[in-house]
Amino acid sequence: MMETSTDVRNRVFLITGGTSGVGKAIASSLARRGARIVIVSRNQERGEEAVKAIAETTGNDRADYLVADLSLQSSIRNMSEAFKRKYDHLHVLANVGGAVYFEKQLTSEGIEQSFAVNYLSHFLVTNELLDMLKESGPSRVITVAGAPRFLKNAQIDFEDIQQVNKFSGMRATAQAMFARVAFSYELARRLERTGVTAVAFHPGLVRSNLIRTAPWFIKLYGKLANRRAKTNCEVGVHLAVAKDVETINGVFFDDTMQIMPLPHLQDEQVGRRLWSISEELTSLTPPTARKPHP
Ligand SMILES: NC(=O)c1ccc[n+]([C@@H]2O[C@H](COP(=O)([O-])OP(=O)(O)OC[C@H]3O[C@@H](n4cnc5c(N)ncnc54)[C@H](OP(=O)(O)O)[C@@H]3O)[C@@H](O)[C@H]2O)c1
Predict the structure, then answer these.
(1) Digit-coded pLDDT (tens) for 127-170
(2) Is the CB of 271 within 6 Å of ligand 1?
(3) Nearest to 179 by CA among 285, 277, 255, 81
(4) In this structure, what CATH number is given to the domain that contains residue 101?
(5) What pTM value is reported for the model?
């Protein structure tokens, strides 16, 4: 596909999960094109390592990082404030960070860890930076999902969204993935005519570190998959830079850049219910309850 790209050199890209896997692949490609990229890293050491590697492999020495533990809302809020202090614009937010947890654990803020990292972090980073995205328009929020075959008949279990009653690592990962997609559709509806668009995408098979804490048989499968996996993510980069997707809002792209309908997750009632639960869990005030500016 012929791509007409926006001039990325003066555009700011924030990428969660930019130290490994899909996020790293997208960050490196954008850096190679001369973009100003900022990676969200779990700690200083990982962040420094990542920007050094990007400078060495792409020749782009403008890459930056900010620290946030994506499992903690306080940490995400600090990172978002730091970003706003440091940068005047945000043109593309790539929500890509993720992890698989094989045991149930609550964060120190009382949220189930997989749900916190794999879904709520995306909801919160986006909302904390939404004003800046609007001021920087045209701008985009792109959120990683998974293969369409997993998403086609996906249902969100609202009765036990954090798997309080019966935990399984794979089910928790899937649930958070469904939530990311439904969130993207709902975000898009809320962003209509604001100059900001929101889409979700399947990255394809990208070399990953995702199952490093998995039982041995899953690790073995992961090792074999990594042999076949790519170190780039064309669809993610395309959605971040291509001019022809600038106004496309509220869709899911598969890894061949085709738009695929996902009716179960597109449902407005699902989106609204998820948004309201997410606001509650992140203590975000719904806009209707906010005091008007003087
Ligand atoms: N890779 C694929 O082929 C593929 C396919 C479909 C969907 N996905 C989805 O893409 C997402 C990312 O997967 P991946 O393959 O890129 O995994 P990965 O290689 O393990 O990378 C995950 C990224 O998220 C970061 N991260 C995880 N927990 C964090 C935390 N608490 N605080 C801050 N950063 C944290 C990791 O930081 P560290 O580097 O410090 O660990 C890393 O940068 C997942 O949701 C996955 O389901 C991936």
Answers:
(1) 999 999 999 999 999 999 999 999 988 889 999 999 888 899 88
(2) no
(3) 277
(4) 3.40.50.720
(5) 0.95
